[in-house]
Amino acid sequence: MISLVRRITAVCALSTVLTTLPACGTTQASRAGHSSPSESAAEPSPAGPSATATAAAAPPTLAPGPGGLTPVFANGPRTGGKKVAFTFDADMTAAEGPRAAAGEHFDNPALIAALRALKVPATVFMTGRWAEQYPDEARSIGNDPLFELGNHSYSHYAFTGDCHGLPTVGADRMRSDVERAYTAFRKAGVRHAMPYFRFPGGCYDKQALRALSGLRVTAVQWDVVSGDAFATDADAVARQVLGGVKPGSVVIMHCTRSAAPTTERVVRAVVPELRKEGYRFVKVSDMIGAATGRS
Ligand SMILES: [Zn+2]
Predict the structure, then answer these.
(1) Nearest-angstrom CA–CA distance, 263 and 52
(2) 205: helix, coil or strand?
(3) What's the predicted TM-score (pTM) here?
(4) How many A from CA of 174 to the centre of ligand 1?
(5) I want to staple 128 with a disulfide (CB 3.0 to 4.6 A). Which of 42, 181, 212, 228 is the partner?
(6) How far apart are CA 216 and CA 70, in angstroms?
(7) Which portions of the chain have biased composition (kind: Low complexity) (predicted)?
(8) Which of these ranges, 52-61, 184-193, 213-222, 245-254, has the smallest mean pLDDT?
């Protein structure tokens, strides 16, 4: 319990200070073969992720909860083989422009390069503000079939009243904050952002799930906290990842040098180890597809 609390605290602390950390990714053509009548209700709305994604082929999403509530996904099937999904939160808050202008790096190009070199698929949950700051990187990540790009809100403000000290976005502005991030992705040149949303700080409640229900997104949490937030000891983070991963796991890490400086080293350390154990890396869309019988 203590260690769980510490891990959660680390994620939250990062979210608080950075206010900008979820992950990324985009699949499109790979989804073409997957469709069934029962999934039509789960297609992303044109007002949400992207109209073109809907036209190409709807990425897998979970069915809405009772009363149409936004569904929440945390991990894939435990019995579907040794698959693990790495997710990286690209955090930058609406208020951090001056810090970026002063030279602080909220991006992490070396991490993305490492994932490409290692051929590790990943899902990046990006804030709209991050995409505005780094449009070339956002486009490159979002349009690379190795990755998929999810939404981490525009502002990285909290969707609940008490979320690790983050400023709060009002219920009446939750949906527009998410839509604004999708707009920022499109402006950066991202063709197919995914209908996946990661709540800033991982904080949500029924009101938040209801506020986003019209967007037809699936909220994506995680079951393994890497502990990369503000970490200085890459080995300790690597051990935490290796100790936590199970079949179907979704690991949360961060794509920002500013608040997660060890993440590239962690990835380079854990990927060969997990492959040695027989794990295969997949994107969140593959996990959700497996959970819904689409893969
Ligand atoms: Zn975040």
Answers:
(1) 33
(2) coil
(3) 0.84
(4) 15
(5) 181
(6) 7
(7) 35-60
(8) 52-61
What is the rounded end-to-end Cα distance, in angstroms, of the chain? 34
Give me the residues near ligand 1 (ion), CB cutoff below 5 Å. Answer: 15, 21-22, 89, 91
β-partners of residue 254 are 89
CATH number of the domain that residue 254 is part of? 3.20.20.370
Q: What's the chain's length in residues?
A: 295
Judged against a pLDDT cut of 60, whether residue 180 lies above it is answered with: yes
C-alpha 36 – ligand 1 centre gap (Å)? 33
Interval 138-157: pLDDT, tens: 999 999 999 999 999 999 99
Residue 117: in which H helix or E strand, if any? Answer: helix 109-118
Q: Which domain holds residue 269?
A: 2-291
With a cut of 70, say whether residue 209 has pLDDT above it.
yes
Q: Can you spell out the DSSP letters for 249-280?
A: EEEEEE--TTT-TTHHHHHHHHHHHHHHTT-E
Q: How confident is the model at residue 33 (pLDDT cuts 50, 70, 90)?
A: very low
Other CB atoms within 10 Å distance of the CB of residue 161: 9
Using an 8 Å Cβ cutoff, are 77 and 232 in contact? no
152 CA from centroid of ligand 1 (Å): 7
What whole-number percentage of the chain has pLDDT above 90? 78
